[in-house]
From TrEMBL, chain A:
Lineage, opening ranks: Eukaryota, Metazoa, Chordata, Craniata, Vertebrata
Task of the protein: Component of the serine palmitoyltransferase multisubunit enzyme (SPT) that catalyzes the initial and rate-limiting step in sphingolipid biosynthesis by condensing L-serine and activated acyl-CoA (most commonly palmitoyl-CoA) to form long-chain bases. The SPT complex is composed of SPTLC1, SPTLC2 or SPTLC3 and SPTSSA or SPTSSB. Within this complex, the heterodimer consisting of SPTLC1 and SPTLC2/SPTLC3 forms the catalytic core. Within the SPT complex, SPTSSB stimulates the catalytic activity and plays a role in substrate specificity.
Keyword DNA-binding: no
PANTHER family: SERINE PALMITOYLTRANSFERASE SMALL SUBUNIT B
Metabolic or biological pathway: Lipid metabolism; sphingolipid metabolism; Sphingolipid metabolism
Membrane topology summary: Multi-pass membrane protein
Protein name (database record): Serine palmitoyltransferase small subunit B
Location of this chain's protein in the cell: Endoplasmic reticulum membrane
A GO MF term: serine C-palmitoyltransferase activity
InterPro entries reported for this sequence: Ser_palmitoyltrfase_ssu-like
Organism name: Pipra filicauda (Wire-tailed manakin)
Keywords: Endoplasmic reticulum, Lipid metabolism, Membrane, Sphingolipid metabolism, Transmembrane, Transmembrane helix
Gene Ontology terms describing biological process: ceramide biosynthetic process; endoplasmic reticulum organization
Automatic annotation (TrEMBL), chain B:
Organism: Lepidothrix coronata
Cofactor: pyridoxal 5'-phosphate
A single Gene Ontology CC term: endoplasmic reticulum membrane
Gene: SPTLC3
Pathway listed: Lipid metabolism; sphingolipid metabolism; Sphingolipid metabolism
Subcellular location field: Endoplasmic reticulum membrane
Keyword DNA damage: no
CDD domains, sorted: KBL_like
TM ranges: 59-80
Superkingdom of the organism of origin: Eukaryota
Protein name in UniProt: serine C-palmitoyltransferase
Record EC number: 2.3.1.50
Family per record: Belongs to the class-II pyridoxal-phosphate-dependent aminotransferase family.
Length: 80, 553
């Protein structure tokens, strides 16, 4: 019973995607083409995020902590 | 000489109340200068005798974004299909010239029909559905299927019975086949036949027309009226008779095509004011009077304002008291097209003039159609006798168009007598009350469910906004599966981002039918995610302050 509800829910989500992007009105071969392109674009976005986002986040954190407090290596020392 | 009124901080203080008979609109003459007294907060609040609530809510931003995305996808695939058609990869189904004429000047401009070919064709099965019974509260539909994605249809031979009709303009339910109701119509049909075979000016004026015209004049409370065979032709053929070159037409943004066509045919200058916006109209009137005609700066020969009683795509009612006060102030003429409002609003069904409690003398030309509330066909123009006599000789429709068919005239006569109570029953008044109740119930329930509905709370035309192009087809098809027939409208009848489903409530709808429709709408609204409204109303509407006007900024 639960499996049926999950399947219905997933079908409903797919239906919403069809309505919102207006691929509901397209013929089946056009729909396949559109889905292929969409899935490809989304996969590329996900891959790029996976590869690049952690590195950029780490660099950004280092940059901001440099401004707000801890001395980096070879920093200018305050003359006493 | 003691001055009974003192001017203090720009407000006139009146010590003698009995001098203030003119103060319905707050105008007071002092030293020959007219000053208007404005109440704080409510502009023109004294002109309206009852509250005027209209809704034009804007959808959240993501809806607009998705709508544009949807149209972009449709356009891209449209270009792709056109490319395939042009290069012979796909069969062409549209009209095109013969091989021998390919070098001539093109007869069919390919790109103009881009929208029709690529977007409308895909969901075309929701329009032009043939019905095979009287369009009462329920009707029978002929089932049709398509094998090639809506380019051609074929009938399966089955009829879908008792589809609830939410699309016909059957406001008072006079589209009926009850034998008792149609008794007089049958008698007239047997007496006169169906054809008139002549125009009004030749041999087409029958005693039925004279009887009908007198009845229409009595119904509306005017001196005289004239009836025509076709409602569209009433507008498009009579406006050219009333105005010509050197006149100015001020027409509402959302006027019907018949009014626009009539205005263009007349040759007068046309200026458009924003929909139902009195500031815009006043500005145009002032500019017209101050600057006159474009190059010569002479005064305009005539200034006429074209408005409709109820606008059928928005469901909004015209602001008649303000327009009449503007017209009196600037000495313009008013042409009121009551196609959807005659019979449908007003305490006894006499249209917007009665709805606002005004006198029919305020409007110069009253026009209406019999197609909507009277279950017949044709239109009328009513007003002063001089106007109607002029139209009898100068209107194109009177001179060239075949006059109204006698059984149809009898149907209008019997419907009007029923409305006025002249047939001895209170059925007419009951129908008007039932329509009012149905309208209020339907609109209230839709607001409570969370849909975005446009228009005035008292108008029986209810547009429900769908926005996204994908949902237009889905909505209409799913409603038909549930045995409910609706009319969906998209571009070009509406702005491109505001496609809608338009419901026409009828007095013939029973509470059960409306409940069926509302339940279906509730389910479908959740399934298709149509409940965009951000103002969730509580279940106690009387707690709301009803003088608030919700207008689009």
């Amino acid at each position: 019973m639960d499996v049926k509800r999950v399947k219905d829910y997933i079908y409903w989500l797919y239906y919403q995607y069809l309505l919102v992007t207006c691929s509901y009105v397209l013929e089946p071969w056009e729909q396949s083409m559109f889905h292929t392109i969409t899935v490809t674009v989304v996969a590329m976005v996900v891959y790029t995020a996976y590869v690049f986002v952690p590195i950029h986040v780490r660099l950004a954190l280092e940059f901001f902590s440099q401004i707000f407090g801890a001395q980096p290596d070879g920093a200018v020392s305050v003359a006493n | 000489m003691a001055n009974p009124s003192a001017v203090c901080n720009g407000h006139l203080h009146h010590h003698h109340q009995k001098q203030n008979n003119l103060l319905k609109s707050g105008i007071y003459k002092k030293n020959g200068i007219t000053k208007g007294m404005k109440k704080n907060g409510v502009s023109n609040g004294t002109l309206y005798k009852k509250t005027f609530i209209e809704h034009f809510e804007q959808a959240p931003m993501y809806v607009a974004v998705f709508t544009v995305v949807g149209f972009a996808v449709g356009t891209i695939f449209g270009y792709l299909r056109d490319f395939m058609r042009a290069w012979g990869l796909e069969k062409r189904n549209i009209a095109e010239e013969r091989e021998q004429q390919k070098d001539f000047v093109p007869l069919y401009q390919d790109f103009e029909n881009f929208y029709t070919r690529n977007l409308y064709m895909r969901i075309r099965d929701n329009w032009n559905r043939p019905i095979c019974s009287v369009p009462g509260p329920q009707f029978d539909l002929m089932e049709r299927v398509t094998d090639d994605y809506n380019w051609t249809f074929r009938f399966t031979g089955r009829t879908i019975k008792n589809v609830i009709n939410m699309g016909s303009y059957n406001y008072l339910g006079f589209a009926e086949t009850d034998v008792n109701a149609l008794k007089t119509v049958t008698i007239e049909l047997e007496k006169y036949g169906t054809g008139v075979c002549s125009t009004r000016q030749e041999m087409g004026t029958l005693d039925k027309h004279v009887e009908l015209e007198k009845l229409v004049a009595t119904f509306l409370g005017v001196e005289d009226s004239m009836v025509f065979g076709m409602g569209f032709a009433t507008n498009s053929m009579n406006i050219p008779a009333l105005v010509g070159k050197g006149c100015l037409i001020l027409s509402d943004e959302l006027n019907h095509t018949s009014l626009v066509l009539g205005a263009r045919l007349s040759g007068a200058t046309i200026r458009i004011f924003k929909h139902n916006n009195m500031q815009s109209l006043e500005k145009l009137l002032r500019d017209a009077i101050i600057y006159g005609q474009p190059r010569t700066h002479r005064a305009w020969r005539k200034i006429i304002i074209l408005v409709e009683g109820i606008y059928s795509m928005e469901g909004s009612i015209v602001r008649l008291p303000e327009i009449v006060s503007l017209k009196n102030k600037y000495k313009a003429y008013l042409y009121l097209d009551e196609a959807h409002s005659i019979g449908a609003v007003g305490a006894t069904g006499r249209g917007v003039v009665e709805y606002f409690g005004m006198s029919p003398d305020d409007v110069d030309v009253l026009m209406g159609t019999f197609t909507k509330s009277f279950g017949a066909a044709g239109g009328y123009i009513a007003g002063k006798k001089g106007l109607v006599d002029f139209l009898r000789t100068h209107s194109h429709s009177a001179v060239y168009a075949t006059s109204m068919c006698p059984p149809v005239a009898e149907q209008i006569i019997r419907a009007m007598k029923c409305l006025m109570g002249l047939d001895g029953t209170t059925q007419g008044l009951q129908r008007v009350r039932q329509l009012e109740k149905n309208t209020r119930y339907f609109r209230r329930k839709l607001h409570e469910m969370g849909f975005i509905i446009y228009g005035n709370d008292d108008s029986p035309v209810v547009p429900l906004l769908l926005y996204m192009p994908g949902k237009i087809g889905a909505f209409a098809r799913r409603m038909l599966e549930r045995n409910i027939g609706v009319v969906v409208v998209g571009f070009p009848a509406t702005p491109i981002t505001e496609s809608r489903a338009r419901f026409c409530v009828s007095a013939a709808h029973t509470r059960e039918m409306l409940d069926t429709v509302l339940n279906a709408l509730d389910e479908l609204g959740d399934y298709l995610q149509l409940k965009y409204s951000r103002y969730s109303k509580s279940s106690h509407p009387e707690l709301y302050e009803e003088t608030r006007l919700e207008l689009e900024d």
